[in-house]
Specification:
This protein has one domain: Undecaprenyl pyrophosphate synthetase (3-Layer(aba) Sandwich). The chain has a six-stranded parallel beta sheet with strand order 3-4-2-1-5-6, sandwiched between helices. The longest helix has 24 residues, at 66-89. The chain is α/β, with parallel strands linked by helices. It has helices at residues 15-21, 26-47, 66-89, 105-117, 134-150, 161-165, 213-224, 234-237, and strands at residues 7-11, 51-58, 92-97, 124-132, 178-181, 200-203. Helix 1 packs across helix 2 (26-47), helix 2 runs parallel beside helix 3 (66-89) and helix 3 packs parallel to helix 4 (105-117).
Length: 238
Amino acid sequence: MDLLPQHIAIIMDGNGRWAKKYGKPRVFGHRNGVKAVRESSESCAELGIKHLTLYAFSTENWKRPKFEVNALMSLLVDTLKNEVETLNKNNIKLNAIGDLSKLPSKSYSALLECIELTKNNTRMTLTLALNYSSRWEIINAVKNIGRDIEAGKIISDQIDSELFETYLDTAGIPDPELLIRTSGEKRISNYLLYQLAYSELYFTDLYWPDFRKEDLYKAIIDYQHRERRFGKTSEQLT
């Protein structure tokens, strides 16, 4: 077993509850969560992890109060502009998955600009899942496969897991070996459902703004003590 995961996915949960604990509005928690994003990204790059994917905004998050949604979109713009220098300094490439065209124009433009300014970085790829839903992603992939069959580009007998994965938003990105979720919740919440089929799941009670590099190390150490069998027996791995 490789001791270090090459791809870590994180569900950054608990910003609102962290803010409530301090008697602050939920937006305060989101703003303080940016530090955890920075520390996790830099730490993964330093360790040699090639991919980090963060669940930044789900399609379901649009149901939150309008003030909070607007604040989150504004925070996204500010963070992207402020972090470009840090990403380039650490040789980190920015990527994004999800129904990105539905983002507000300012957020979408800032995202595309940051992706463009970091596209030549090679140390690590940081992927933001924005306006993302795994069910949407899978259905969208099926629709596109259907269109290509109708256009005669492929035939149904060609469809296997390898082909199907090329239609997902994560095409070209290896599946995560490790999923981390903060805040004590123990569910996947419509995140990378196809890609997490064989991922190790790690849950911590820490709220996301309190998550630091030492907590990332704990999750990785926990991962390193697990036996990944992929349907085989322990004896077959030796």
